[in-house]
């Protein structure tokens, strides 16, 4: 243990060793606390500055024009209606695909899969690895298989499928945790009453784990809605002046923001900030709902 | 009919009831397995979609040029295909963001787990989640339009308009929640007894935190760090918007740098004709990125196994 040498004056009588040590410790303690508070300050300070800066910059451009207008090369006339609509479509598609697939996968891994079998372990490791694959790599997958391979082209459906794959591991992990937290006594009780395996899962386990699954799904959805990189790859295009359809070209809100960011004109930067406000409102309100659900339905078995 | 009659008449049936095959149950099992198999198909799809065009690419560009070449200009006529500038750029950005996220994330974790009163923790953790939920395109915009001017005018660092520093700083802050939540989970799993033992021996809070809790949770903390690093390597939008498109070998974060992900994002916007060398380049570079993150992930799993402390 290092002891901080006190600055000794000529007529200074050194205190006994014990208190000096204490003083050194107290000094270290204070420094450590300061370092921790600095960490907190950086994390939360940046968040605050980001939110304030975005709102202040984007406020002048935040209008009904932005929400309902069509994109334009003139910043004053530009809106993001097609982008916002497409983002809502994408969100709906992600929910439609990722929740059933994710929950069924979770049920399989938690309730049915026999760990002794190598293929079940492979599925598990595989999902772990998929969670670590960068989102843009999914974009490459989409470019190769869905857009060019099957030849559906750069349409909303392709974007929805790719975003589904991006967030699927998140949904699976959250659902597994929710299912695992249902105590075994509930299953045993149902079995004892003569229920079949699926009846136990469908009528007992699943209803009990719905809050956890819902929380995880909403968080995954909010991530999908804010995801940009894979959509650039599967062709959310720059300029879409019509409402999107399922099998038609589209641009999503994050991609629209990215495109505005790239414009040299300062007015477009303002538009980008305004678009960012809209996106933040969508994403953060989803997060708020998820956090609320989690706190509201937290169960102690 | 009495029960006695039944047992006498069909003794075999009561002692050995034949199990009825429930076809519905079997079908459910099958459907569930198919759902689980989709994730495996995804991986297979990723590998195929990366490897097949990459083989084509390496027919035209020698692997030596690709992995050892120091110039990256694939979009020019007679372009050069040395991936090192992109790899170095990726590493530089990840390094600086790790320098931000590792210590600060750990600091936040120690504070939330050891120091903060429970009410403060339950208030701060959702805010941390909000930070983690900010879309990266917004973070990239923030790095470009706020952090870069701030560094230049307020801090006085001479950064270029597109620079690696602003991107790394914002990326680092974005990763703080990842490091903090995972480390905090690991620290929460350290049994109270260990802490109490430390206090009983006269240790103060600092000593208990840094010499007992952190070492006991080190496997989880390392896993959090490695995961954050892997996220930094794979992050696209922040670097694409704020770090620029200049593929050059430099360790100076004040300059513009292109990362692997930024190249893919900038090139793969759908305008590249299928089958062209530019098109194949996306896949070769994507394969490099995929292998990098896979290796990092495997290292993480290995490290966690090596340092794991198991408490009952």
Describe the structure.
The complex is a heterodimer of chains A (301) and B (312). By secondary structure, chain A is mostly helical. Chain A is 73% helix and 0% strand. In chain A, helix 5 crosses helix 6 and helix 7 packs antiparallel against helix 8. Chain B has 14 helices and no strands. Chain B is globular, with a radius of gyration of 27 Å. The N terminus of chain B is likely disordered. Classes of the chains: A mainly alpha (301), B mainly alpha (312). Chains A and B meet through helix 1, helix 3, helix 4, helix 5 and helix 6 of A and helix 3, helix 5, helix 6, helix 7 and helix 8 of B.
Put the structure in a nutshell.
Chain A is mainly alpha-helical and 301 residues long. Chain A is built from eleven helices and no strands.
Q: How would the blueprint of this fold be written?
A:
The complex is a heterodimer of chains A (301) and B (312).
Chain A: H1 17-58, H2 64-68, H3 81-112, H4 118-132, H5 135-149, H6 156-180, H7 184-192, H8 197-226, H9 229-233, H10 253-262, H11 266-296
Helix pairs in contact in A: 1-11, 3-6, 3-8, 3-10, 4-6, 5-6, 6-8, 7-8, 8-11, 10-11
Chain B: H1 3-9, H2 11-15, H3 23-60, H4 63-68, H5 84-115, H6 118-133, H7 136-155, H8 164-188, H9 192-200, H10 205-216, H11 218-234, H12 237-242, H13 260-267, H14 277-307
């Amino acid at each position: 243990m290092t002891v901080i040498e006190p600055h000794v004056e000529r007529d200074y009588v050194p205190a006994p060793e014990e208190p000096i040590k204490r003083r050194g410790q107290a000094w270290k303690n204070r420094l450590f606390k300061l370092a921790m508070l600095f960490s907190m300050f950086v994390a939360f300070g940046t968040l605050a500055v980001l939110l304030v800066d975005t709102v202040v910059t984007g406020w002048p451009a935040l209008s009904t024009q932005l929400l309902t207008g069509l994109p334009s090369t003139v910043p004053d006339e530009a809106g993001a209606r097609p982008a916002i609509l497409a983002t809502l479509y994408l969100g709906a598609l992600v929910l439609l695909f990722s929740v059933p697939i994710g929950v069924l996968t979770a049920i399989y891994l938690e309730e049915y899969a026999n760990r002794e079998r190598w293929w079940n372990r492979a599925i598990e490791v595989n999902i772990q690895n998929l969670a670590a694959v960068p989102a843009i790599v999914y974009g490459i997958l989409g470019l190769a298989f869905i857009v060019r391979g099957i030849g559906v082209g750069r349409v909303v459906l392709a974007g929805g499928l790719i975003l589904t794959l991006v967030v699927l591991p998140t949904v699976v992990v959250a659902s597994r945790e929710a299912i695992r937290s249902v105590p075994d006594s509930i299953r045993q009780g149902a079995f004892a009453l003569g229920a079949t395996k699926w009846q136990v899962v469908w009528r007992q386990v699943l209803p009990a784990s719905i809050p956890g699954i819902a929380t995880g799904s909403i968080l995954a959805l909010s991530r999908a809605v804010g995801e940009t990189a894979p959509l650039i790859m599967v062709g959310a295009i720059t300029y879409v002046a019509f409402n999107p359809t399922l099998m038609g070209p589209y641009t999503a809100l994050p991609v629209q923001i990215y495109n505005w960011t790239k414009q040299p004109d300062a007015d477009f930067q303002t538009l980008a900030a305004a678009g960012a406000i809209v996106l933040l409102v969508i994403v953060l309100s989803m997060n708020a709902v998820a956090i609320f659900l989690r706190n509201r339905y937290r169960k102690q078995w | 009919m009495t029960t006695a009659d039944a047992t006498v008449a069909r003794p075999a049936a009561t002692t050995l009831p034949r199990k009825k095959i429930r076809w519905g149950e079997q079908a459910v099992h099958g459907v569930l397995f198919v759902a689980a198999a989709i994730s495996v198909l995804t991986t297979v799809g990723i590998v195929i979609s990366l490897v097949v065009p990459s083989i084509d690419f390496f027919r035209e560009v020698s692997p030596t040029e690709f992995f050892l070449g120091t110039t990256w200009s694939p979009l020019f006529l007679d372009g050069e295909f040395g991936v090192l500038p992109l790899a170095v750029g990726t590493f530089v950005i990840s390094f600086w963001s790790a320098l931000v996220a590792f210590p600060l994330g750990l600091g936040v974790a120690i504070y939330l787990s050891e120091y903060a009163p429970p009410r403060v923790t339950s208030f701060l953790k959702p805010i941390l989640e909000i930070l983690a939920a900010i879309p990266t395109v917004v973070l990239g915009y923030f790095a470009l339009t706020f952090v870069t001017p701030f560094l230049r005018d307020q801090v006085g660092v001479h950064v270029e308009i597109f620079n690696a520093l602003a991107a790394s700083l914002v990326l680092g802050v974005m990763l703080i929640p990842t490091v903090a939540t995972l480390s905090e989970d690991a620290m929460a799993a350290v049994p109270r007894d260990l802490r109490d033992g430390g206090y009983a021996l006269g240790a103060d809070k600092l000593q208990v935190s840094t010499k007992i809790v952190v070492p006991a949770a080190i496997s989880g903390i390392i896993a959090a760090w490695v995961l954050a690093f892997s996220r930094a390597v794979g992050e696209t939008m922040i670097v694409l918007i704020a770090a620029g498109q200049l593929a050059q070998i430099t360790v100076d974060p004040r300059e513009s740098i292109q990362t692997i992900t930024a190249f893919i994002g900038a090139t793969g916007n759908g305008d590249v004709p299928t089958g062209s060398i530019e098109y194949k380049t996306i896949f070769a570079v994507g394969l490099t990125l995929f292998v990098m993150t896979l290796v990092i992930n495997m290292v993480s799993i290995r490290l966690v196994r090596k340092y794991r402390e198991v408490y009952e």
